[in-house]
Known about the structure:
The chain is mainly β. 8% of the residues lie in helices and 50% in strands. It has a seven-stranded antiparallel beta sheet, with no helix packed on it. Strands 2-3-4-11-6-9-12 form a seven-stranded antiparallel beta sheet. 44% of the residues are buried. The chain binds manganese (II) ion.
Amino acid sequence: xxxxxxxxxxxxxxxxxxxxxxxxxxxxxxxxxxxxxxxxxxxxxxxxxxxxxxxxxxxxxxxxxxxxxxxxxxxxxxxxxxxxxxxxxxxxxxxxxxxxxxxxxxxxxxxxxxxxxxxxxxxxxxxxxxxxxxxxxxxxxxxxxxxxxxxxxxxxxxxxxxxxxxxxxxxxxxxxxxxxxxxxxxxxxxxxxxxxxxxxxxxxxxxxxxxxxxxxxxxxxxxxxxxxxxxxxxxxxxxxxxxxxxxxxxxxxxxxxxxxxxxxxxxxxxxxxxxxxxxxxxxxxxxxxxx
Length: 291
Ligand code: MN
């Protein structure tokens, strides 16, 4: 085992609004070091860094829109989001929870701040990821995994070190509950001051760590709040240490080495498949969802 060295430490790009409910920094593919191909299977990453939304009676959010060809994963750190989709699934993602929606063949969905959260206002912080699907699964049946915090794997790092919360994949002996189509590791290192965790993933896996709260020393380098440590595709192991309470999202996945054709909410392998996606959506094949 050799060290997985940091390729670069990346500060969040300027934010933009998605609908009126999400103020996001688009790291993937917005940052020039994090193209879809470089970061596969993580082909989109919007980070809503922590902000305070004032109270509003009518919830902010994003109206009905389609997806095909991948999965959307929402990780809630602060605040609450209500989700509805045309496959008939709905739910509320609360602090600490994750929603894993497999759009695959196609869904329409909408995402708004949860009604009561909106009325009260407050701190809001989320990560939304798009996880690509291999060509053979892009047109599979949509599905939905509501992953409550209490269902996540939990590896205790020892007294006074905190723990690693596993959403998908494996940390040491602990597995995460999410089912994935290709190998994906997704976990939160929730470290207390003085805590330290060691990670090991194959050299070929695309790997990053986002500091969601506090700051961390990653392979001894200081990474501040809202920054990403992007790792090289060499070596396996790295360490995260905290000299204050910190939360670090760690993502590591096997690249899907297939052509990417992306347009708006569709990510396929060819241009022809993108055209087909529009045709199928316009024919109503993604189902119906009221705004
Ligand atoms: Mn969406």
